[in-house]
Amino acid sequence: MKIEFYKYQGTGNDFVMIDNRTKTFPKENISIISKLCDRHFGVGADGVILIENDTDFDFKMIYFNADGSQTFCGNGGRCAVAFAKYLEIITDKTRFIAVDGPHLAEINNGIISLKMIDVDEITVKENSVFAYTGTQHHVELVADLDQFPVFNKGKEIRYSYSDPGSNVNFVQQINDTTFRVRTYEKGVEDETLACGTGVTAVAIAMHKTGKTTSNLISLPVEGGNLEVSFSEENGVYTNVFLKGPATFVFKGSISF
Ligand SMILES: N[C@H](CCC[C@H](N)C(=O)O)C(=O)O
């Protein structure tokens, strides 16, 4: 089977994007998904994203981690919007459906602003915060991200959560409105250069625990800069937006 693909990246979180409006991609074939993500034997990516038709929305986005598990993906959602524009499915505004529900998004000068789900599942623990932002996220502050063993500590914490586990975000506060983040992602089972649902969880966790009073947060990550904004009322976070670039890298085809 020959698969046409488009490679996109959102602040270094990279994806194999497939126009699956013909519904011909073998979604149940996890070995193909894993091979597409393999950085030596395949294309190489953190995940695979399918774009499909939907009767009620401009399109449907399906995200697979490299291990075939499905969740929502914030950076992937922004790349899906850029890809949908390239495919002329949309212009600069869209309403699409994903595994965690409907999303609005807008494109302004190449920057994509993606509306995330409302966040009300937030658990504050002694040294960490857990939040669900379309997938599971553990958030904890550290003193010096450059020196921190993200992979080893991230893997340990990831598996300390009962199935399906949790992504793990380590945060260093830079100033009142800026928090640097490094993330270990479940399903990728490694540190990624950015995690959109992760920085969303971080921004909300920092506000929830009083590390910031702002509702517009800058989040420098290894692969670039992201921004999260939100409203908060009675501990529920709404109008949550994840903003940042999403870039086409190359297109190609691969046969299995
Ligand atoms: N990189 C993605 C998150 C993927 C989450 C996935 N790793 C999982 O929850 O299993 C993002 O930008 O939100």
TrEMBL record:
It comes from the Bacteria. Substrate binds at N13, N65, G74, N75, N167, G196, T197. It catalyses: (2S,6S)-2,6-diaminopimelate = meso-2,6-diaminopimelate. Pathway: Amino-acid biosynthesis; L-lysine biosynthesis via DAP pathway; DL-2,6-diaminopimelate from LL-2,6-diaminopimelate: step 1/1. The keyword Heme does not apply. Keywords: Amino-acid biosynthesis, Cytoplasm, Isomerase, Lysine biosynthesis. Catalyzes the stereoinversion of LL-2,6-diaminopimelate (L,L-DAP) to meso-diaminopimelate (meso-DAP), a precursor of L-lysine and an essential component of the bacterial peptidoglycan. Its EC number is 5.1.1.7. GO terms for cellular component: cytosol. This is Diaminopimelate epimerase. Signal peptide: none annotated. One of its GO terms (biological process) is lysine biosynthetic process via diaminopimelate. The record marks H137, E185 as: Could be important to modulate the pK values of the two catalytic cysteine residues. The active site is at C73 (proton donor), C195 (proton acceptor). Belongs to the diaminopimelate epimerase family. One of its GO terms (molecular function) is diaminopimelate epimerase activity. Pfam families: DAP_epimerase (PF01678). Its main location: cytoplasm. It is found in: Cytoplasm. Homodimer.
